[in-house]
Amino acid sequence: MPGLSRRAFLATVGGLAAALQLDPMLVGAALAQAPVPSDAPTTLQRTILQGPVVQGRYRSLTAGPGEPHLPRIDVLGREPGPDRATARRSLFYLGHLSDMHVIDAQSPGRIEPMIVQDHSAWASAFHPQDPLTVHVAGAMAAAVSAARTSAVTGAPLDATVVTGDSADMHSGLELRWYIDVLDGVPVTANSGSPTVYEGLQAWPEVTWAYRPGDPGGGEFGDYGFPRLPDLLAAAIGSPVASPGLPTPWYAVYGNHDTLLLGTFDVSSQFRSMAVGDRKATTWETVAGKALTGYAATGSPVQRFVDAVDTAFGTAPGFRTVTADARRRTFEQRDFMTAHFETTPLPGPVGHGFTRANLDSGQTWWSADPAPHVRMFGLDTCNQVAGPDGAVPDDQFRWLRGELERAGAEQKLCIVASHHNSLTLENRAVRPGGDTQALHGAEEFVDLLLDHPQVVVWLNGHTHLNQILAHTRGTTGFWEVTTASCIDFPQQQQVVELVDNRDGTLSVFTTVLDHAAPVAGGGSSWLDLAATSRELAANDWIENPVFRRGSPLDRNTELLLPAPFDLSTITDAQLEAQRGTATARMLANDARSPR
Predict the structure, then answer these.
(1) Is the pLDDT at 538 greater than 90, yes or no?
(2) For the residues 29-40, what does the mean pLDDT come to?
(3) What pLDDT score was predicted for residue 290?
(4) Residue 450: count of CB within 10 angstroms of its CB
(5) Domain boundaries, the chain
């Protein structure tokens, strides 16, 4: 560690070994190694593209060429220095996950049949790959773990942030599965019956869905979706042995973590259905029973009759399934509380949320994942209705004050939220409820532009790779939106802040495919994740290829002026930071088998 003296190096090794209960020789050997850019699998080496037609219109996937980092100077406004690659040093290396959409596909608390009423409007209610979301989440955690050292500088991963939509249908079980997968706790993606798949994809009368045992007789069969008779049994048959994330991770709310299907309030009737033993198979049943609480019509007597019909199964369009109390829908504060029910490593306990958040109900936070970096986790979700968001005035004013303080302390700032600048205009309010102002994208972007220490805004929500430049005069910041784990291309990313030592800073974005093989076909959990990606790539309602974004939205070098004199961050400080990140990963890897 050339930035540290011998005495400081030994002190660093001893302190980290003692704090993390590691062998000092192991820590010392790891910290003594010079950083080397990683050749771990990323889209720098290989991409995954739609392949040839297999049957009907259904396509396989194929490996494509890797994509290099493309420089973008939209914010810098001039050509960068040609020698920056030989001078650069890493300031912070971060994983970015979003829109994991972990799904309990067997739950009665889903409204899949709504796609029959209007597939394009309700496309997120059902996907052919719904039973495989835990497998994809595990494969994505494995990809981040593999990319634990930077392909640009060799720096170790400092942290990861998850920008919302983690639990797809407001289910406490989905919430538990997502946290366990990222913590490295094995998860069997099953609920209800311990041995039988009790979901609509196993039922022959549900011809409007993709039924892997016999896909014929409906649109999915007509399209050419394959017959995979063992898929559902394999999906619930064995644990997903996710390695978990190797470093501390942080989380924020998404609209699916706030509202039903990310759009509706959660009614008491729906809460009862979610933990009950009746699952709807027709859209008329869902609209008339599960969504009754959202209708403005119907007398109290009719609502009572509807509730009795639902509870006792006298209404048509239901199948009996095994009830499971773990499927209960969670309240807003439950989302934060669940993040305290976690393993000590990789940490932190609460994953960004603190005891102060639980005591106050405040759903946003700030954290310093490195000594010279401050990250702000926002809650941009509208709690009344609608998938898009806005920034409430109390949070807006809090962020303004925190950014001013961070600027005075010369912290590089990263803002993390679920919604992006194209979806931050939802000003729906509840009659008689909170009357505070809701700030939209223009005001929010202006706020960030007021503070040049903000270098990148990370978000999701739209399920596609997209990078936008926001500028004012000679300053600005980058907005980086990542794709999702549910829709093709099922990609996420790592982001690195790099000092070019010439008065400029680069933000490198590197897209990750999850760790499953290009083609599935087997029954292992990674093979099932590969099958999920292929099914997602054949979504004919959406445009799966469009979600990849352009090359300028994927592997990039995003240049901008340094917000302050970066030489005030010494090499010794960065070496100590690298040592801490490396030792934490060693401690995480040394955990007993789970």
Answers:
(1) yes
(2) 90
(3) 57
(4) 14
(5) 46-309+320-342+461-556
